[in-house]
Amino acid sequence: MFTLNHKLPGKRFSMRTLITNGHIVTAIADYEGDILIDGEKVAAVSVPGAFASLQVDTVLDAQGKYIFPGAIDVHTHMELPLPATVASDDFETGTIAAACGGTTTIIDFANQQRGHTLADALQTWHNKADGKAVIDYGFHITITDLAAAPETAMDDMVTAGVTTFKLLMAYPGTFMVDDETIYRVLRRSAKIGGLVMVHAENGIVIDLLVREAVAAGHTAPGFHALTRPAILEGEAAQRAITLAAFADAALYIVHVSCAHALHTVAAARVKGLPVWGETCPQYLYLNDSHYASPGFESAKFVCTPPMRSIADNEALWLGLQRRELQVVSTDHAPFHFAGQKELGLHDFTKIPNGLPGVEHRVVLLYEGVRT
Asked: How many whole angstroms separate alpha carbon 313 and alpha carbon 307?
């Protein structure tokens, strides 16, 4: 057993809550115990009954229940703006959902618009969240245009408390950056102690496949997945890792969805490279059979990367078990079926890409590990 604060405050001005008989699970320990909360801070943790003599305002009996620290979701997109719509969760509804699911901190993405500065992007996202979020939050910065925000602007972001920089290798014409930009950002990030996050897909080849599919009249939702094959995620992940190694920079691959990308991350880590991988519940639980759903139903599962095979599901679970992947986030970006997903009723390229998940991640992981 351990205590987080060996000396309890002598004077008390806040409400005290005592949680008793809980099964406490932390990153390093697993035991029965009681938790004393003073105001909004955990004051002490100890053996059952250790705080029985203290005056408290509320007692919660956690007999038969697990108690976890608040979870952190490092990949969300609240109020994400797309060309034709905006994600259905803002920072109020999205963080309420997060809290209901046991997540007490999110890190969202402030996306630089082409022609605008990184500071503009950060301020825009602060404006979205300020006064709305009911839990703690932070930001990554998505870089799309070095001409408007040269590498030195990254230094200002670090000063502002943002040390992670996202680059997309997909979505040409909007978010995608070229290899020169990737390398320049990696090089600067290494110099200032930052971390570069990469959405790994070969956007140029995918764009060709999409155009060819549409020209052939293949516009159903399932072609979203068929035009984004797993091998092109693996190729992009390997390219990003190669550039990061050349720049001597740390790299974080977001939403790994397939064995191709998983194996590139695992191989890099075996070599001792500072590379980390993240996956999401949808890539652990859902698979490409959902794109065969009748009618337009499969649009509900359109996200990027798309769902992969059952074999990929199994590979990712094994990757987590082997610690080849280090993080499970959600990539939370929900859109209503009616009025939003339906924008692509006759053209899969117009379906807003994204799924919800911030409320259910913790229980899904618990159930996945338990079973």
From this structure: 9
* pTM assigned to the model: 0.92
2-24 burial code (b ≥16 CB/10 A, e <16): eeeeeeeeeeeeeebbbbbbbeb
Q: What is the chain's percent helix, strand, coil content, to nearest 5?
A: 35, 20, 40
Q: What 3-state DSSP class applies to 252?
A: strand
- In 3D space, the residue among 266, 256, 123, 153 whose CA is nearest the CA of residue 197 turns out to be 256
48 cis-preceded (ω within 30 degrees of 0): no
Residue 304's alpha-carbon distances to 169, 216, 233, 333, in angstroms, are 12, 22, 10, 11
Give me 154's structure tokens.
Answer: 């990254």
In this structure, what is the dihedral angle of CA atoms 239, 258, 90, 352, given to the nearest 10 degrees? 90
What are the structural domain ranges in the chain? 16-67, 71-370
Instruction: Tell me which CATH homologous superfamily contains domain 71-370.
Output: Metal-dependent hydrolases (3.20.20.140)
321: number of Cβ within 10 Å: 10
Angle between helices 179-192 and 230-247 (to 10 degrees): 50
pLDDT (tens digit per residue) in 150-190: 899 999 999 999 999 999 999 999 999 999 999 999 999 99
Beta strands in 157-302 (DSSP E): 164-168, 195-199, 251-253, 275-279
The CATH number of the structural domain formed by 16-67 is 2.30.40.10
Q: Which residues of 156-181 are buried (b: 16+ CB within 10 A; e: fewer)?
A: ebbeeebbbbbbbbbbeeebbbeeeb
Strands (E) across 220-361 are located at: 251-253, 275-279, 327-328
